[in-house]
Structure to design on (401 residues):
């Protein structure tokens, strides 16, 4: 074990040097080596304690914290922090119970305790933001029951791989529904809102698809943009609440030569419109079902972020075929922002997303060969695949074959 630990420490030291000079991917590498170090050091009893008591208790307390606005109260208290008695008064949690719950958050490094008061950390301040509060609710209320049900569910199905696109997977079993995931979200408020904000948060803070060193927007899209073909630069197909387009618009204010269009389901677009009734959005919105023909023709690019991974191969081909009809040959690009699984070198981001897919859609994340196959079947060809250090998702650029 000494050798394993020494070798991980060497990797940590070298990733630490890269981190000091802000090298892309070094922060993620440090986290990964730290995980490896814990695995190498932890004995089984400690592993069981951490994984099956400490972490479930922590996430349960954090979910409870959403209801009583705990992280917001700590954030508002600033440097002075909050004493247990004041926090008990404000949250209406019995002081003894509160102290016990908070102590656990202290040992899990979520908050700190000093000079008789609880204090926020950069992490807990971040978690106080609305998008993370909704993400916590979605992950705890919707995803966690689906994962908890895995052992019983798979035993009952004799460990068969669930049918892709089916309505009888772990999610349906856990939530006692026959509805597909996206339909269930609409019928069970506030889960649709929680999910949509979770989508805007789950990879926030990482390099964006258009960041320098990732997909070269100016070379590949702006250059060659021809308003005489169409004045639309980008259509975000299934773009949720438009967080990707909003970020793109903010980053390209002076260099956005064409229209930006957000498309999603009726219920999602209705929420976007209602919530922004007093604001001017930096993009247009359209209700569009991507299983029907694309209505915006000849745009420079159609962007699909985390869309096809929710669907079986057959359904994904159908979605692409509905898009293909709108593409201008040699001009329009299809940009899939998706995980490309490397089976020999899986990452936690890729395998945990794969588990989310297994739990909620009974589908899987895809390898490069899988992506090429479905694109080809839809009449498209891959131009190039762009990746970025430490980012799970790649941009697969495709065009009409
Ligand atoms: C996994 S989310 C991805 C959202 C967004 N692209 C992102 O990366 O954050 C999938 C999106 O597809 C939308 N969606 C599901 N079925 C759809 C359909 N038939 N037509 C259009 N959008 C759909 C959902 O409402 C949701 O916003």
């Amino acid at each position: 074990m000494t050798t394993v630990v020494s070798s991980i420490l060497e990797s940590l030291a070298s990733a630490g040097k890269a981190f000091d000079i802000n090298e892309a991917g070094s922060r993620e590498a440090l986290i990964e080596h730290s995980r490896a170090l814990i695995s190498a050091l932890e004995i089984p009893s400690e592993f069981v304690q951490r994984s099956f008591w400490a972490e479930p208790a922590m996430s349960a307390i954090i979910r409870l914290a959403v209801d009583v606005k705990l992280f917001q109260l700590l954030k508002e208290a600033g440097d002075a922090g909050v004493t247990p008695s004041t926090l008990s008064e404000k949250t209406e949690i019995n002081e003894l119970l509160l102290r016990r719950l908070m102590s656990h958050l202290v040992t899990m490094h979520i908050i700190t305790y000093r000079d008789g008061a609880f204090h926020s950390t950069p992490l807990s301040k971040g978690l106080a933001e609305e998008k993370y509060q909704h993400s916590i609710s979605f992950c705890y209320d919707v995803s966690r029951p689906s994962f908890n049900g895995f052992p019983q569910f798979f035993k009952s199905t004799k460990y068969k791989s669930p049918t892709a696109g089916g309505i009888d997977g772990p999610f349906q079993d856990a939530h006692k529904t026959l509805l597909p995931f996206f339909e269930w979200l609409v019928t069970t408020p506030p889960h649709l809102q929680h999910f949509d904000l979770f989508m805007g948060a789950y990879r926030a803070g990482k390099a964006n698809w258009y960041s320098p060193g990732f997909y070269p927007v100016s070379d590949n899209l702006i250059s060659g943009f021809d308003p005489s073909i169409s004045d639309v630069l980008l259509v975000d197909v299934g773009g949720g609440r438009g967080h990707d387009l909003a970020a793109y618009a903010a980053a390209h204010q002076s260099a956005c030569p064409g229209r930006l269009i957000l498309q999603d389901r009726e219920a999602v677009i209705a929420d976007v419109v209602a919530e922004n009734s007093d604001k001017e959005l930096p993009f247009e919105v359209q209700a569009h079902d991507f299983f029907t023909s694309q209505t915006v023709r000849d745009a420079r690019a159609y962007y699909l972020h985390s869309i096809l991974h929710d669907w079986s191969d057959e359904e994904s081909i159908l979605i692409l075929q509905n898009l293909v009809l709108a593409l201008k040959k040699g001009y329009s690009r299809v940009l899939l922002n998706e995980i490309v699984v490397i089976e020999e070198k899986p990452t936690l981001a890729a395998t945990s997303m794969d588990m989310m897919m297994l739990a909620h859609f009974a589908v899987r994340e895809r390898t490069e060969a899988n992506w090429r196959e479905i694109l080809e079947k839809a009449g498209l060809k891959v131009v190039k695949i762009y990746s970025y250090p430490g980012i799970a998702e790649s941009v697969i650029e495709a065009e009409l074959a």
